[in-house]
Amino acid sequence: MSDSGVQLTEVRKSFGSMEVIHGVNLTIPDGAFVVFVGPSGCGKSTLLRMIAGLEEVTDGEIAIKGREVTDVDPSQRGIAMVFQSYALYPHMTVRDNLAFGLKMQRTEKAVIDERVAAAAAILKIEPLMDRRPGQLSGGQRQRVAIGRAIVRQPEVFLFDEPLSNLDAELRVSMRVEIARLHRELGNTMIYVTHDQTEAMTLADVIVVLRDGRVEQSGSPRTVYEDPDNAFVAGFIGSPR
Ligand code: ADP
Ligand code: MG
């Protein structure tokens, strides 16, 4: 039980009469960095949103840390999600953006201050705390967005293409920071991208998706060196 971070059992999703996720089974080990990769429209975001509880599961079950959460409210699942669009509050300072979610939960002020300071230190955004989002670069904004997830101290972090709005150079440096974050925090992280390089460099486990199904999952090395089929080989760029 404790060795399972997130477990998906025969998970299906339909929009109207159209099924887009076709019975996905996945065991995501506790503390692993797992990357969902696959072409646009294959169902990466839908899977992540179902884990987050932002999208209802049509059929099947999802468990987080051994607890069945299929009908549990998103705020009670022990997860925090970071989106592609930073969705920061433009009229609030960085400090208030970081604190906002905890204030809403009526967390004690001393605890809020402590967690905000810790997140700021981890992300090296201490000099930016009194600025507003409009006064930040794209990379700095994305750090604040990640900071908002960190202060909630989730069991599981969910990232949906968090770097895709950044330029190439910044993407690389943020990727390094996210890897460091995983080493420091040790949480389970599920990271969605359509970028093979990002997947290969970040993942402990890669899950290759196509048309709402898992084509293959395994270590980057296994998926690269021993792809199960031509689709995986082609997508990952294996020399096959
Ligand atoms: P990805 O994130 O891999 O690009 P998505 O999970 O966004 O893919 O989408 C998977 C499939 O589900 C696509 O065919 C998409 O058009 C469809 N889809 C996603 N969200 C909705 C929705 N709210 N209503 C109808 N179809 C949707
Ligand atoms: Mg998506």
TrEMBL record:
It is a peripheral membrane protein. GO terms for molecular function: ABC-type maltose transporter activity; ATP binding; ATP hydrolysis activity. One of its GO terms (cellular component) is maltose transport complex. Its main location: membrane. It is found in: Cell inner membrane. Residues 6-236 form the ABC transporter domain. Keywords: ATP-binding, Nucleotide-binding, Transport. Belongs to the ABC transporter superfamily. This is ABC transporter ATP-binding protein. It comes from Pleomorphomonas carboxyditropha. The lineage of its organism: Bacteria, Pseudomonadati, Pseudomonadota, Alphaproteobacteria, Hyphomicrobiales.
